Amino acid sequence: MKFIKKTDLIIIAIILLVSAVSWFTYKYFTKDEAPKAEIYYYTELVKTIDLGSGNDVHFSIDNEPDVIFHVTADGTIRFEQSDCPDKICINTGELSRPGQFAACLPNGIVIKIIGNKNDDEPDIIIGSSGGQ
Question: How many CB atoms lie within 10 A of CB 84?
Fold first, then answer.
């Protein structure tokens, strides 16, 4: 009794081929733009940084000059220095992918990485529009 038959191998090869073609098609037709980092001071957006600029930059925001950020040439951002007591924000590390975020809660600063999608579109819709 054979474990794998010839038809099983053909089906597996077809599935792998379709998967590879789909992946290459997706990569070819989607734009690979660098994400952006948004820096919020409490609820106010104070700065937006393009992570694909290729520059190595240290900076701070006007509201909290003791909090220093570091943007690397390879497209990451992190908290470099902070005057907060616990330093959790510094230990968060580098952020580079959309959806990642880090916060320095004592200073009220949040870094959020956003992708290139249209932000006017809702992430989720809850409820119904039907009348009752």
Answer: 17
